Amino acid sequence: MPLQISQPPIAARKAVHSMLGRIVAGGGDHVTALRSASLSSLAVSTPHRIAVLGLDRIGSGMSLRSAAQ
After folding, report:
1. Residue 8 has pLDDT above 90, yes or no
2. Domain that holds residue 29
């Protein structure tokens, strides 16, 4: 079965690109590494699946996969 990835709304993509443009143009000290980039070289990717593993959820003999949220 192929993965089906939903696309974010167009307004959301435009808002992200607008903010990236302001950061690249030097409109703030948010991410200094982005200020030296060109806007055309940046790409927005879809969110990645992540897991959170709190230290309080780790138990003796427990698999980390089952403890992660």
Report:
1. no
2. 10-67
